[in-house]
Design goal:
The complex is a heterodimer of chains A (548) and B (184).
Chain A (H helix, E strand, L loop, with lengths): L1 H4 L4 E6 H11 L4 E4 L6 H14 L5 E4 L3 H13 L4 E6 H17 L5 E7 L16 H5 L3 E2 L4 H18 L3 E6 H4 L1 E7 L17 H4 L5 H22 L4 E3 L7 E6 H14 L5 E4 L1 E3 L3 H8 L4 E5 L5 H13 L4 E3 L12 H12 L27 H11 L5 E4 L24 H13 L2 E7 H17 L5 E6 L23 H7 L4 E5 L5 H12 L5 E6 L3 H4 L2
Parallel strand pairs in A: 2-3, 2-4, 4-5, 5-7, 6-7, 10-11, 10-13, 13-14, 15-16, 16-17, 17-19, 18-19
Antiparallel strand pairs in A: 1-8, 6-12, 9-11
Chain B lengths: L1 E5 L4 H14 L3 E5 L10 E9 L14 E4 L2 H4 L11 E5 L13 H9 L5 E4 L1 H9 L5 H11 L7 H11 L2 H15 L1
Parallel strand pairs in B: 1-4, 4-5, 5-6
Antiparallel strand pairs in B: 1-3, 2-3
Helix pairs in contact in B: 1-6, 4-5, 5-7
Classes of the chains: A alpha/beta (548), B alpha/beta (184).
Chain lengths: 548, 184
């Protein structure tokens, strides 16, 4: 981390997420909020360590209880004039869209950059292969897409400048191969304040109250801002044309990680198709794109996941070059992450070069190594108690996002549905209402605070009787042991059992499953026969935080 | 080059050492790693590319010069990136997968030899345990071995400097000893 704090210019090897932090620090960021989620987790970890070391001087940081709260905390800081960074993974953005849309209408006071990290191929993300791009169309929020760590740093700095100039929050969208890419990054000078950060909220209902009829005026003002940012995007060097040296009638439009694979492919076949590299996904520099495609016969769109860029180029081609053949998803898959060889294959086809994907065949099959709960994980005791208390064939097991999603892997095989954070109880309630079958819903401590509580109240309010086991290992373990309201060393005084009881749950018990296995087994049996909802809080710290 | 292994084997440390050494020698560098599930014993792969100019952090299919396997079964994951000239440098260590019959060293070595003749199976775990009393430095041993055998085109001195920069002080002496051991 000391690398990131070096005040002097120089070159250091940085991870994309580290470069984002450095960019924010060089910009003089004052307020940072996040909820951990891979591939964005390191951003929070770095600021957490940084502010703990400096005792809050010059910078405020928090792990919020969920992304919506992180967004709202950042909005409050921005409205009070502070330079603000908010970070999350793609699914986190879903949680806070409700706040984001009116935030874009209202605009910023302190410049605000929002980092959203997508995970094509779902390396570390379950649920869906979410592509954050179309939020731009929904929310009218500018999106910048860096290709490498150097650009991560540069784009964050530019993002703050655009936000300051146009009074609008900016999204920087990364993907796993950008966020977790390393390269030598040029560091600029950095001044760090030692003052305690104090902003000031100045009342301004015209900006901060989103109610009709004013809200429609705000929409008009927002669309006018976007027109101005579009002309900024037209002139910006982030959207750059790399001219061809040959007489090619074929061009490539690309952005993000796909740009690097494009460059690799062009070098491989020694062809120099002109390339338009887009740093802005929204608003697109439409005039620049039209100019680029004007004299071309074919344009290859190298983009990961869904063809949003391809559709935009098709639309623009109707206005400037209606004979243009726009090639995208017919050559490059929209499922899974982009890979260099996909671009090799497309570039080879278009340039008439020979390329066949090399295929090595192995006589033996590679054994699949699934991740497992760590040896010594307290969750093993929960698993063994459940297996002793019930016949797994007769009970439905609801899963969730956290280490306990590994319950679904063999040899445990204790997971019958798995969706987003906070959903095990909500879906469990629906199944109970629909069927009356026996059901145990698992939820982790951090997930319970993130989005579990409303679903728990719903089981009381609408009277269903799942057994809910809250797995409290006193940390947000899966993303790297970030703190939460009841984590090891917490001074909040909050107790999960008190919350559960305050929600109206009568059958509630806190048990250490590692030391009270018998009590755990008996309570599971007892609670499963109840007519109303019951909750076991299985308390035992993760061995990694217990040691500290 | 690609390094394969399982969570906790120190793949990211190897990535850092090679990148820092390559930077000392003035090369352009790009690497890619994955975070998240690795701590929990799953498969891990990292990619390191250095040279005059490097664009992609991912190795294109079939373009790896070196595939280093810190666990022998995991080394097979490298096949996607291999060609007949690729060097496989493999720790003979086999970490069994629950409920599965592990592959044998010979099965792994024989099937890789059908792809490339340059397959080196090294008992790094045993050598380190015998000479240094611990097997945790098997990764450093393999890396250093590759440097002294000129499989990784970096100067030993640069790698030593990088080692000193990357490894925390309390583990440094052991790692330097490992580095020296690989020279023999």
């Amino acid at each position: 981390m000391q690398e990131l704090l070096d005040k002097n210019p120089g070159r250091k090897i940085l991870l994309g997420n580290e470069a984002i932090c450095r960019g924010a620090l060089e910009s003089g960021v004052q307020f940072v909020s996040t909820y951990p989620g891979t591939p964005a987790s390191e951003i929070g970890n770095i600021f957490f360590d940084l502010t703990r070391e400096r005792n809050g001087k010059g910078l405020y940081f928090e792990f919020s209880t969920n992304e919506k709260v992180a967004m709202e905390a950042g909005m409050g800081a921005s409205f009070s004039g502070l330079k603000t960074l908010i970070a999350m993974k793609n699914f986190g953005l879903n949680v806070c869209i409700d706040s984001l849309l009116p935030f874009v209408y209202a605009g910023t006071k302190g410049p605000t950059v929002i980092i959203v990290a997508d995970d094509p191929s779902c390396h570390s993300s379950a649920q869906s292969e979410e592509n954050t791009r179309p939020i731009a169309f929904l929310a009218h929020i500018p999106i910048l897409e860096p290709s490498d760590p150097q650009e991560c740093k540069d784009f964050v700095k530019l993002g703050f400048k655009i936000s300051e100039q146009f009074k609008i929050p900016i999204i920087i969208r990364t993907t796993t191969r950008v966020a977790h890419q390393k390269m030598p990054v040029v560091l600029d000078k950095m001044e760090r304040s030692n003052e305690k950060i104090v902003g000031r909220f100045v009342k301004n209902p015209r900006q901060f109250i989103t109610l009709p009829p004013r809200v429609l005026e705000m929409k008009k003002e927002l669309l006018e801002k976007i027109v101005k940012i579009k002309s900024f995007s037209e002139k910006s060097s982030l959207n750059k044309i790399e001219k061809s040296s040959g007489p090619y009638k074929i061009g490539i439009i690309t952005s993000g990680i796909s740009y690097l694979y494009t460059k690799e492919a062009l070098a491989e076949f020694n062809v120099s198709f002109p390339v338009l590299k887009l740093g802005f996904f929204y608003p697109l520099p439409e005039l620049k794109i039209k100019k680029f495609i004007k004299g071309l016969k074919k344009v290859l769109i190298v983009e990961e996941l869904e063809p949003f860029l391809e559709q935009e180029v098709e639309r623009l081609a109707k206005e400037s070059n209606c004979k243009l053949e726009v090639i995208g998803k017919k050559m490059i898959t929209e499922i899974g992450e982009m890979r260099p060889e996909f671009v090799f294959s497309a570039v080879a086809k278009l340039s008439g070069e020979k390329y066949s994907q090399p295929k090595n065949t192995l006589q033996i099959s590679i054994p699949k190594r699934l991740p497992q709960l760590c040896p010594g994980c307290p969750y093993w005791s929960v698993i063994s108690a459940v297996k002793k208390a019930v016949n797994p064939e007769e009970v439905i097991f609801g899963g969730e996002i956290g280490c306990y999603m590994l319950f679904g892997n063999p040899p445990v095989n204790m997971q019958d549905y798995l969706f987003c954070m906070g959903s095990s109880m909500g879906i469990g309630h629906g199944i109970k209402k629909a069927t009356g079958q026996k059901l145990i819903a698992f939820i982790g401590d951090s997930s319970f605070f993130h989005s579990g509580i409303p679903a728990l109240i719903n089981t009381v309010f609408n009277k269903s009787n799942p057994l809910i086991i809250i797995l409290n290992n006193e940390t947000t373990a899966m993303t790297g042991h970030q703190p939460h309201p009841v984590s090891v060393g917490s001074d909040t005084g909050i107790k999960i059992e008190n919350i559960v009881r305050a929600c109206g749950v009568k059958n509630a018990k806190t048990i250490d499953p590692t030391t009270n296995q018998e009590e755990m087994i008996e309570t599971i049996k007892d609670f499963l026969s109840k007519d109303d909802v019951s909750v076991i809080i299985a308390n035992h710290p993760c061995k990694f935080v217990a040691k500290k | 080059m690609m390094v394969t292994g399982t969570g906790g084997q120190g793949l990211i440390t190897i990535l850092q050492i090679i990148s820092e050494a390559a930077m000392i020698e003035g090369y352009d560098i790009k690497t890619s790693e994955l975070h998240g599930l690795s701590q929990r014993g799953g498969s891990v792969e990292v990619y390191i590319r250095f040279g005059k100019k490097v664009y992609s952090p991912l190795i294109p299919q079939g373009k790896a010069d070196l595939i280093m396997g810190l666990e022998a079964q995991e080394a097979l994951k490298g096949v996607y990136f291999a060609n007949p000239k690729t060097t496989f440098l493999i720790n003979e260590n086999i970490i069994p997968i629950p409920l599965k019959k592990p592959l044998t060293k010979n099965e792994i070595s024989n099937s890789l030899k059908k792809i490339s003749k340059n397959v080196f199976m090294i008992p790094a775990k045993e050598i380190c345990r015998e000479k240094l009393g611990t097997e945790v430095v098997a990764g450093t041993y393999l890396l250093s071995w590759a440097v002294f055998k000129k499989i990784i085109p970096l100067e030993a001195l640069s790698v030593l400097k990088a080692l000193k920069k990357v490894i925390p002080p309390k583990h440094l002496e052991l790692n330097i000893k490992t580095f020296e051991l690989a020279k023999e």
